[in-house]
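Lay summary

Proteins are chains of building blocks that fold into shapes. Our project writes down both the chain and a compact code for its shape. Here are two examples, one after the other.
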Amino acid sequence: MHISEENGIKQLQKGELQGRKCMPTFTKKAIEIALFKLLNEKPLSKITVKDIVEECGINRNSFYYHFQDIPALIEESIIEETNSILEDISGITTMRESVEKIIRRLYQNKTALYHIWGSSNHEQLEIHLMRICDNFAQKYVNGSEAYKNESEEHKQIMQDLLQCECFGQLVKWFNSGMTIDLMEHVDKVVQMADKGLFRFDK
């Protein structure tokens, strides 16, 4: 599921997922869309199950049929959004395009992500942001001319370094209140990597 899918948000805002049209097969998705819509409006600590079900137009029993509580909903929503991002970049061959795609997706729900980051549920977000960084670093190192002659052991070390550097830029972005230019900072990391920053000296 693509949480930031514009059609889903528009349907929810228009009430098209309410009442009878919020059928069981759509209920889970509608709940996740409602969560992110609310997270883009206010902090997680201010969101209740009542808010979510009213936004979605379902009853509390339907919510608890799909999710044990709000933390469980957040965890599953983050997993699905992460999987969607990874699927989006799976066929991309250039690293610049991959970076742009990832950052564009993060910016689509940046307020919601910021509110999760500042909550007690931030650990799940950290875990899956690391998944995205690891995927990017692996593709970069394995596809880069600068590192093609390195041993597999050295490539793994370079992948770990690039993963942690990219994750560090995300942490800086969140901790700055998302005021820094994330694309500019990550692009500089990639430029340094292109110059062999993480390459082992012979």
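And here is the second example, written the same way.
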Amino acid sequence: MASAFMNNGNYGTPLILFAFGEAGMKYAVIIMVIQQLLMCTVGVYYAAKGASESASIKTAINEVIKVPIVYGALLGIIFHLFHVRLGETLMDAVSMVGNAAIPTIMIILGMQLAKISVKTLSKGPLTLSLVIKLLLSPAIAWVFTLFFPLEDLLKKNHDRSCRNANCSQYYHVRFTIRNGA
């Protein structure tokens, strides 16, 4: 998962804003939403499936069904289509929960990093993950831009080589702890 998903939220989006301004942000937000939906479906599926040797396809699909982000996105689309406006009080509550998300994930990341010893790292998989993330993924993204009729700004606006997504780390923790590994 570390190589498959980019950190285009709290890291990539400000980077795009800095490099390309508001014009680049239009594309970055769309890419971020699509990537988050993929992570909350495909990413959760593979994290649940890989959490233990005995994990079944049914178990993994049940884990995907439990992820509320997809339902929230569908509800957001419905609200948008029917022009439903939410009250200010509700939006304040949603904003407060949203503002707590990144610090909470950072605390979990710090707790996980505290347990890591450089001596016990599997250097082969780590090296492969880094090569994929920093070299192969940007190259593949660049090749795709050659074959699609995209605006120049959109061709430059891919943050595939950003560091790993915190959500990948969160799903790893969630499914490792649940299965006692």
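What can we say about the second shape? Helices lie at 12-50, 57-65, 68-81, 88-115, 123-147, 152-156, 166-178.
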